[in-house]
Amino acid sequence: MIQPLNSAERAELAKNLPDWYQASGQDALVRTFKFKDFVEAFGFMTQVALLAEKMDHHPEWSNVYNRVEILLTTHDCKGLSARDVALARSIDRLAAR
Question: Judging by beta carbons within 10 Å of its beta carbon (0-12, 13-18, 19+), is residue 61 exposed, middle or buried?
Answer without folding.
Answer: middle
